[in-house]
Amino acid sequence: MPLPDFPWRADTPAPRSRTPRLWITLVTAVWALAALYVAQAFLPPNVIKLPGQKKVHQVALAVAPQGWAFFTKSPREPVHVPFRQLADGTWSDARISPHSKPSNAFGLDRASRSQGIEGALMVRKDGIRWNDCSDASSAEECLKGAKLSKPVTNTSPAPSLCGRAALVEMKPVPFAWRDLMKGSHSIERAAVWDVTCK
After folding, report:
1. Which of 188, 160, 155, 189 is CA-nearest to residue 97?
2. Rg (Cα) of the chain, in Å, rounded?
3. pTM above 0.70, yes or no
4. What is the pLDDT of residues 34-88, one digit of tens each?
5. Per-residue pLDDT reduced to its tens digit, 1-22
6. How far are the Cα atoms of 36, 57, 69, 86 from residue 64, in angstroms, in the given order?
7. Helical segments of the chain, H only
C-alpha cells in the first residue's frame, strides 16, 4: 500500500522562495549606512564627514542613547590615586587595587571598587585646594610641599583613607609620547586633607 503524500516526506522537494539579489544588496546597504551614521554620531571628531551628520546626531542620541562610553571608561581620562602619610612623614600609595590580586579574592571582594567612590566623595567636598604638580617628578615630591585643604569627614562605611590623606591626579601619557616620558602617567595636581573617619 503506498504511503500518503505528506508535505514533510524526505523525497518531497522543499518549496523554494527566490529573493532577488538586488533586494538583499539594497537592504544590506541601508543597514550598513544606518550603522555608519550611528557610529559616527558617537565617535570623537575625525576626518570622516557624512552628509547631514549633525541632524542625524540628534536622532542617533534618541534612538541609541548609550553610546560606546556605556561599556567602558575612556583610557585618556585622568585617574585619582589615593596616598596616605605614614608616621615618619613619608607618603605611601594607598590603592587597594588591582581588583584581580589575591588579597581581593581575585576580584570577588568588591572593597577595591568602593575606594574610587570614597575618593570621589572627598573631591566633591567644599574647600578643596588643588596643588599644581606639573613640575614634580613624582607624586611623593609633589605631596611634600602641598598645602592642606579644609579638613573632611570620610563618611564611607569601610573607610580606607583616614588621617593625613591625599588624592593625586595623574594623566595617562599619550601613546605617541610613550618613549619621551618616564612612566605611564604624568602627575597633574594633588589635594591633601586631614581626614576624620567615623
Report:
1. 160
2. 29
3. no
4. 888 878 877 777 888 888 887 877 777 777 665 555 567 777 888 888 999 988 9
5. 555 555 555 566 666 767 788 8
6. 13, 10, 12, 49
7. 21-42, 53-63, 111-123, 139-144
Q: Are 157 and 111 in contact (CB under 8 A)?
A: no
Beta carbons of 167 and 81 less than 8 angstroms apart = yes
3-class DSSP state of 79:
strand
With bands split at pLDDT 50, 70 and 90, how would you rate the model's confidence at 29? very high
Is 85 in a helix, a strand, or coil? strand
How far apart (Å, rounded) are the C-alpha atoms in residues 173 and 76? 8
**Which residue type sits at 5?**
D
Mean pLDDT to the nearest integer, 183-192: 85
8 A C-beta contact, residue 133 and residue 190: yes
Q: CB under 8 Å to 3, separation ≥6 — which residues?
A: 9
Mean pLDDT is lowest, of 132-136, 153-157, 182-186, for 182-186
> Three cell numbers at 131?
596643588
- Residue whose cell numbers read 602617567: 185
Whose grid coordinates read 610613550? 178
